[in-house]
C-alpha cells in the first residue's frame, strides 16, 4: 500500500509539473513580459572553434566570431551569423566600392501603410542603408502620386512601381513574392546586382552596410531567435507547400528582411510564389503567409549569410545584452487601424 501511495503521489506531482510548465509556456507565448524575459536563459549554442577559423565572407574578409562568445556566430552548414563586432565595417565598405555595385532595396507601401510608414522608412534609409554605395529604391504601391519626395544622395535613385490594391492585407503579403519575381526579371534585375526586400513598417536606426550582402541572406526573427526548434511557428499543415515536419527547420527567419543576388532572389521568389499558388488551388493559406514559404525555402536552400536580430529588432522585447547596435527597428504596429 505504501508503494502504491508513493506512486500516486509522484504521479500527481508529475502532472502538476506538466501543468505548471504548460502555464508558463502559455504566458511566455502570449504576452506576460516577466515570463518572456526568461528566454535569455535559453542557450543559443556555440560555434565550434574549428568552424570559427574558417569563417570568411566575400565582403568582410576574415570574420571575428570569437569577439562575440555569448552568441551563436555560425550555422551548422558553415554560414556566418553577423553580429556587431564580428566584422570590420571599413573592410566591407571598401570591398563593395571596389566591386562597383548597385544595390536594390524594395518595399511595398499599400493602403494606409503608405501614409503611416513610408516617409520615415525612406528618410532613415538615406541616413543608414548602404551609405556611400549606389542604391536604387523600388517602392511598390497602388498610389504612385502619394509617394513622398525624399532628398536622395548622389548615386541613389527612387523608382515607383504601380501594383493592384488587394482586397485583404493577407493577399498583399502573399502577392509580394510574385511581384518581386517579375521585377527581378525586369528593370530591377538589370539595374542592381544585390537586392534587399524589406517591410515598410520599420525604420533604420543604425548602419546597415555591405557587411549584410551575400549570395542569399536570411534574417533571424527577433521574437524567436532563442526558441527551441519545436516551439518555432513553422507551417505544420502537411497539405501546405510551406509545411515543415517535426524535426525540420534550422532557425525561424523573418520575412521583413531578406536579400541576395538577383539570381538567388529569383529562385526564392519563384519557389514562394509557386507554393502559394499551389496552396490557393487547394483552398489553403499558410499560417504566416509568405513568411511560412520563405522559411520552407531556406530549409531546403540554406542561406549563405544569416543576419542576427540586431539587424531587425523589435523594441517591444526590451533591451537585451546581446543586442548592441540595432540596425532596423520595428515601428509601432497599429493593425486594427491599418488593416481594416
Number of E strands: 12
Shape: globular
| Neighbour order of strands in the largest sheet | 3-11-9-10-7-4-5-6
Number of helices: 10
What is Rg?
Answer: 22 Å
Strand percent estimate: 15-25%
- Low-pLDDT sequence parts: none
The whole-number mean of residue pLDDT values reads 89
- Report how far the terminal alpha carbons are from each other: 64 Å
Summarize the main sheet: 8 strands, mixed
Helix and strand string, N-terminal first?
HHHEEEHEHEEHHEEEEHHEEH
Which terms would index this structure?
about 350 residues, alpha/beta, eight-stranded mixed sheet, two-stranded antiparallel ribbon, 10 helices, 12 strands, about 35% helix, globular, metal ion binding, Glyco_trans_6
What does this structure look like?
There is one protein chain. This protein is of the alpha/beta class. Helices cover 35% and strands 16% of the residues. It has helices at residues 2-29, 33-36, 49-52, 89-98, 112-128, 169-184, 187-191, 262-281, 290-300, 335-338; strands at 56-57, 61-62, 81-82, 102-108, 134-141, 156-162, 194-198, 202-204, 216-220, 253-261, 305-307, 328-330. The strands form three sheets. Strands 3-11-9-10-7-4-5-6 form an eight-stranded mixed beta sheet. Helix 6 packs across helix 8 and helix 8 packs across helix 9 (290-300). The N and C termini lie far apart (64 Å). 39% of the residues are buried. The model has no long low-confidence stretch (mean pLDDT 89). This is Alpha-1,3-galactosyltransferase 2. UDP-N-acetyl-alpha-D-galactosamine binds at residues 108-110, 113, 199-201. InterPro entries: Glyco_trans_6, Nucleotide-diphossugar_trans. Keywords: Glycosyltransferase, Manganese, Membrane, Metal-binding, Signal-anchor, Transferase, Transmembrane, Transmembrane helix. Pfam families: Glyco_transf_6.
Amino acid at each position: 500500500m505504501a508503494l502504491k501511495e508513493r506512486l500516486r503521489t509522484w504521479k500527481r506531482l508529475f502532472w502538476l509539473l506538466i501543468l505548471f510548465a504548460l502555464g508558463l509556456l502559455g504566458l511566455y507565448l502570449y504576452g506576460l513580459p516577466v515570463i518572456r524575459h526568461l528566454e535569455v536563459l535559453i542557450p543559443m549554442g556555440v560555434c565550434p572553434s574549428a568552424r570559427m577559423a574558417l569563417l570568411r565572407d566575400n565582403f568582410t574578409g576574415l570574420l571575428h566570431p570569437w569577439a562575440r562568445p555569448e552568441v551563436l556566430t555560425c550555422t551548422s552548414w558553415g554560414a556566418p551569423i553577423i553580429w556587431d563586432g564580428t566584422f570590420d565595417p571599413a573592410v566591407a565598405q571598401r570591398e563593395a566600392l571596389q566591386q562597383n555595385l548597385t544595390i536594390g532595396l524594395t518595399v511595398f507601401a499599400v493602403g494606409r501603410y503608405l501614409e503611416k510608414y513610408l516617409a520615415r522608412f525612406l528618410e532613415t534609409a538615406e541616413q543608414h542603408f548602404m551609405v556611400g554605395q549606389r542604391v536604387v529604391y523600388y517602392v511598390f504601391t497602388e498610389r504612385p502620386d502619394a509617394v513622398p519626395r525624399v532628398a536622395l544622395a548622389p548615386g541613389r535613385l527612387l523608382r515607383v512601381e504601380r501594383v493592384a490594391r488587394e482586397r485583404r492585407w493577407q493577399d498583399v503579403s502573399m502577392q509580394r513574392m510574385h511581384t518581386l519575381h517579375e521585377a527581378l526579371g525586369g528593370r530591377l534585375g538589370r539595374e542592381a546586382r544585390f537586392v534587399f526586400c524589406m517591410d515598410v513598417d520599420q525604420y533604420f536606426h543604425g548602419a546597415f552596410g555591405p557587411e549584410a550582402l551575400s549570395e542569399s541572406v536570411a534574417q533571424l526573427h527577433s521574437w524567436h531567435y532563442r526558441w527551441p526548434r519545436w516551439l518555432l511557428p513553422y507551417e505544420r499543415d502537411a497539405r501546405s507547400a510551406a509545411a515543415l515536419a517535426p524535426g525540420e527547420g534550422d532557425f525561424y527567419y523573418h520575412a521583413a528582411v531578406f536579400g541576395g543576388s538577383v539570381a538567388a532572389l529569383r529562385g526564392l521568389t519563384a519557389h514562394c510564389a509557386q507554393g502559394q499558388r499551389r496552396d490557393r488551388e487547394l483552398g489553403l493559406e499558410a499560417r504566416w503567409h509568405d513568411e511560412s514559404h520563405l522559411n520552407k525555402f531556406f530549409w531546403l536552400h540554406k542561406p549563405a549569410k544569416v543576419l542576427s536580430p540586431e539587424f531587425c529588432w523589435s523594441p517591444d522585447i526590451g533591451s537585451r545584452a546581446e543586442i548592441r547596435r540595432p540596425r532596423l527597428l520595428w515601428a509601432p504596429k497599429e493593425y486594427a487601424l491599418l488593416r481594416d
